[in-house]
């Protein structure tokens, strides 16, 4: 068994059981005028990881390994949006309201779409999730089971919210999880640092973290 150089120790990779999950690289979180910016966040922190996320996606495609994309979004009738979630954030602009890129975080709206540079290609799975974690109210578990996946590499945003939540969900389901450090980001650098520390604490209690170059080097030999 090969290992990917990682923290807190080498990730025991099994290439035939490995997939990449790219979390919520959506226009509403990364572009000026989107939902993230409306909350007062510096969206340039998100766009700066796009080249590394793109390299990671291309590396998995070149190796013939699965790439799965997630999008946080809700039904147009808001039937899957709890009031407790809608009532948080910016009182002037909430999920479901009309924003500069269509209705905010609603399935099918322009702002909900994945950034064009990272767009899925034919055959790649896209999971629309109404929650922070990608397993909640989705068929992600079934997809992974059908593909024989037991190990997951994570990229995307934000590190401390949707990425970490999904990693914790996956960890509880028995998946081995590896976070690509340069391919994830937060609007708050201290939150990213804290999430990384929590993930790999106590002997990889939630998972491992590694650099994109080390992951790419490993999967090039898959």
UniProtKB/TrEMBL annotation:
<keyword id="KW-0378">Hydrolase</keyword>
<dbReference type="InterPro" id="IPR000868">
    <property type="entry name" value="Isochorismatase-like_dom"/>
</dbReference>
<dbReference type="InterPro" id="IPR050272">
    <property type="entry name" value="Isochorismatase-like_hydrls"/>
</dbReference>
<dbReference type="GO" id="GO:0016787">
    <property type="term" value="F:hydrolase activity"/>
</dbReference>
<protein>
    <submittedName>
        <fullName>Cysteine hydrolase</fullName>
    </submittedName>
</protein>
<dbReference type="Pfam" id="PF00857">
    <property type="entry name" value="Isochorismatase"/>
</dbReference>
<feature type="domain" description="Isochorismatase-like">
    <location>
        <begin position="19"/>
        <end position="207"/>
    </location>
</feature>
<dbReference type="InterPro" id="IPR036380">
    <property type="entry name" value="Isochorismatase-like_sf"/>
</dbReference>
